[in-house]
């Protein structure tokens, strides 16, 4: 991994208590893990899709309508969940998601969040057990949450469907009004979303026995969580190979 890109990532994510620019950080860690080889093309693709989604959602009013427009845009442009090759590391590299139009629940959600932001809507990531969703904060206390699944075509999920999905993952029955369910419908912070994405990559690389890539993801995780000594301890077992320029 190029040390200059690692330093740029470290500067971008800032100290552990700072807010993290989610999409830009995801794009930058993807560049770092690929030695910057795809960076220029990825930024062009990013700009093109940003302009296209703003045009697509022009005239839509309200957060729900804009969100539906963003998810419709992703469907029409054939962005979809990579069900056949779920463990492919490219599903977690944002530049490759833009290129191949395939991703995991979390990477497609990060893309949807970014595009919604470009259209003026604050969409949130929801760290659901075994899955990842996006949602809008209810405007009124007690209102039903508004949740969508970018991995499955941007389908909107009602509370009973969310309870059924939760039940299928945790192995015991959960009612739609259960606090156990609703705690996972709260917005997930950007730093935790990036952590989950990098942990996915660390698992993928570990399964493929790509130890150098495991070390690279640990370096990025250490930059994201400098306050966690266990990451540095793991790095001692997998020392990274750094270089200045490719």
UniProtKB/TrEMBL annotation:
Organism this protein belongs to: Enhygromyxa salina
InterPro entries per the UniProt record, alphabetical: SirB1_N (IPR032698)
Pfam families: Transglut_core2
Superkingdom to which the source organism belongs: Bacteria
Family: Belongs to the UPF0162 family.
Record-annotated Protein SirB1 N-terminal domain positions: 63-198
The protein, known as: Protein SirB1 N-terminal domain-containing protein
């Amino acid at each position: 991994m190029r040390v200059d890109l690692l330093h740029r990532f470290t500067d971008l994510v800032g100290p552990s208590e700072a807010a993290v620019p989610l999409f830009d950080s995801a794009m930058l860690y993807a560049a770092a893990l690929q030695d910057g080889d795809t960076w220029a093309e990825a930024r062009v693709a990013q700009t093109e899709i940003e302009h296209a989604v703003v045009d697509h959602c022009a005239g839509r009013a309200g957060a729900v309508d804009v969100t539906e427009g963003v998810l419709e845009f992703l469907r029409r442009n054939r962005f979809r969940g990579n069900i056949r090759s779920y463990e492919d590391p490219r599903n977690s590299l944002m530049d490759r998601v833009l290129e191949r139009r395939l991703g995991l629940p979390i990477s497609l959600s990060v893309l949807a969040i970014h595009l919604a932001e470009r259209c003026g809507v604050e969409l949130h990531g929801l760290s659901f057990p075994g899955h990842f969703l996006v949602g809008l904060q209810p405007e009124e206390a007690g209102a039903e949450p508004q949740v969508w699944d970018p991995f499955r075509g941007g389908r909107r999920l009602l509370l009973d469907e969310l309870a059924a999905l939760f039940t299928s993952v945790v192995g015991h029955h959960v009612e739609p009004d259960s606090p156990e369910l609703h705690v996972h419908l709260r917005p997930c912070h950007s730093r935790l979303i990036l952590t989950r994405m990098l942990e996915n990559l660390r698992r993928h690389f570990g399964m493929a026995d790509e130890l150098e890539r495991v070390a690279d993801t640990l370096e990025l995780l250490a930059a994201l969580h400098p306050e966690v000594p266990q990451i540095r301890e793991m790095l001692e077992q997998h020392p990274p190979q750094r270089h200045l320029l490719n």
